[in-house]
Amino acid sequence: MSSARQQNSPPARLDWPALGWAYLFFWYFSGIQHVLLQLAGATIFAGIRQATIVSTLWLIPLFRHPDIVDLI
Predict the structure, then answer these.
(1) What confidence score (pLDDT) does residue 17 get?
(2) Using one digit for the tens of pLDDT, what is the confidence trace for 37-56?
(3) Which residues contact residue 23 at a Cβ distance below 8 angstroms, ignoring those fewer than 6 apart?
(4) Residues 47, 57: contact at Cβ < 8 Å?
(5) Contact 64, 19 (CB under 8 A)
(6) Low-confidence spans in the chain with pLDDT less than 70
(7) Looking at the 3D structure of the chain, how many domains does it have?
(8) Which residue, 28, 30, 29, 18, is CA-closest to 62?
């Protein structure tokens, strides 16, 4: 049985700039519509806050498996 990573290799380091771009990517698809709705006066700040929290939750798999950050 072979493994993609060798047994003695150090764990993958987290690429912080890539993680920031991943957060921006996730936030764009969940938060931009709330920003536009707030600028139009159709809603309050709660939508932007919820979009920010949900975008942060999307980062949990990236923290647990830092090798997939390079794929995004």
Answers:
(1) 87
(2) 899 998 888 888 998 999 99
(3) 55, 56, 58, 59
(4) no
(5) no
(6) 1-12, 69-72
(7) 1
(8) 18
pTM of the predicted structure, to 2 decimals: 0.68
Q: Is residue 22 part of a domain?
A: yes
Q: Give the pair of three-digit tokens for residue 13.
A: 């380091």
Domain hosting 39: range is 16-44+56-71
In a domain, 29, yes or no: yes
Residue 24: what pLDDT? Answer: 93
Say if CB 14 and CB 68 are below 8 A apart: no
Q: How far is CA 32 from the centre of its chain?
A: 15
Token pair for 8: 């003695």
